[in-house]
């Protein structure tokens, strides 16, 4: 009986989820990041009722019949007031939670404070503060904190492993250690259009606009406007460069990446994979 009820719930979930995806897709075709975030949020909202299928001995709801956690830490204690309902459907990055090791978590969030704009920042910047806090899981206490002045709403933090992180502030990339100390890796003259890190933390993927002066000297038929560099995280040596006609939200893997090849008159389009 219980199995049949769960099967019915799954059928209703699939129908509801794909209906939402179809509706969102028509409104987010020009914004792939917004589509993925919106679909992810709707997936969470749809699947939540399916997972709450049991209660603990004291009457507290549990997830899929599992006992409630032995310890909980309220983030409101450290100043985090939660996300507004509408913020879950935007591309603005206001919250990250990452393990630094088995006993510590790095929490970063937008405290929504008034910011005194720096004189050198143009009106096009969306300046805001990000609060970074290291929490000790065993005691539930705040042991370290920092505040970062950011200039846009794009993603700013990626884990590199061993308690280290990549921090992006406008067009500068920093390595962040366990003490929240910043080490400048590189400061690019061009605007960074997209950044990501491979899952193994060994390569940084950076997309920038192609230099217009260099492109004029290049007489090749290619009309590349964006350059994607794969940088070694330790030496910053360029391992590979791809040129494209537009920004691609590329997320590499530890095994390699896919590169679409231009079709020839007598051939179909193919894809090349490289390590």
Tell me about this structure.
Helices cover 19% and strands 33% of the residues. The chain has a four-stranded antiparallel sheet with strand order 3-4-5-6, with no helix packed on it. It has a four-stranded antiparallel sheet with strand order 7-8-9-10, with no helix packed on it. The protein is globular, with a radius of gyration of 22 Å. The chain has three domains: 1-70, no CATH class; 73-177, no CATH class; 188-275, no CATH class. The longest helix has 26 residues, at 2-27. The protein contains three helices and 16 strands. The protein is α+β, with helices and mostly antiparallel strands and 275 residues long. Residues 24-33, 45-56 and 267-274 have low confidence and may be disordered. The protein starts with a helix and ends with a strand. It has helices at residues 2-27, 32-51, 212-217; strands at 54-55, 61-62, 95-99, 104-109, 128-136, 141-150, 157-161, 164-169, 172-176, 182-187, 192-197, 203-209, 226-232, 238-244, 257-260, 271-274. 11% of the residues are buried.
Topology:
Elements: H1 2-27, H2 32-51, E1 54-55, E2 61-62, E3 95-99, E4 104-109, E5 128-136, E6 141-150, E7 157-161, E8 164-169, E9 172-176, E10 182-187, E11 192-197, E12 203-209, H3 212-217, E13 226-232, E14 238-244, E15 257-260, E16 271-274
Antiparallel strand pairs: 1-2, 3-4, 4-5, 5-6, 7-8, 8-9, 9-10, 11-12, 12-13, 13-14, 15-16
Strand order of the largest sheet: 3-4-5-6
In terms of DSSP E residues, the strand content is 25-35%
Number of domains: 3
Number of strand segments? 16
């Amino acid at each position: 009986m219980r199995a049949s009820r769960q099967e019915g719930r799954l059928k209703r979930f699939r129908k509801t989820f794909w209906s939402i995806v179809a509706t969102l897709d028509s409104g987010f075709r020009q914004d792939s990041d917004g589509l993925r975030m919106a679909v992810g949020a709707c997936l969470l909202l749809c699947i939540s009722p399916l997972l709450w299928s049991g209660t603990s001995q004291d009457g507290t709801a549990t997830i899929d019949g599992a006992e409630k956690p032995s310890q909980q830490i309220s983030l409101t204690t450290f100043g985090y007031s939660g996300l507004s309902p509408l913020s879950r459907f935007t591309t603005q990055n206001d919250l990250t939670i990452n393990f630094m090791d088995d006993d510590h978590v790095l929490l970063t969030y937008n405290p929504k404070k008034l910011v005194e704009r720096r004189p050198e920042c143009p009106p096009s910047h969306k300046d805001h503060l990000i609060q970074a806090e290291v929490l000790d899981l065993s005691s539930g206490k705040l042991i370290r904190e920092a505040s970062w002045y950011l200039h846009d709403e794009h993603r700013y933090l990626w884990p590199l492993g061993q308690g280290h992180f990549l921090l992006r502030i406008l067009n500068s990339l920093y390595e962040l250690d366990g003490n929240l100390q910043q080490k400048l890796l590189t400061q690019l003259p061009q605007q960074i259009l997209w950044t990501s890190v491979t899952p193994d933390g060994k390569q940084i993927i950076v997309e920038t606009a192609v230099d217009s002066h260099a492109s004029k000297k290049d007489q090749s038929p290619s009309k590349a406007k964006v350059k994607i560099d794969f940088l070694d995280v330790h030496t910053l040596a360029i391992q590979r460069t791809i040129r494209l006609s537009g920004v691609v939200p590329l997320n590499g893997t530890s095994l390699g990446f896919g590169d679409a090849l231009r079709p020839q008159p007598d051939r179909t389009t193919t894809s090349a994979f490289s390590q």
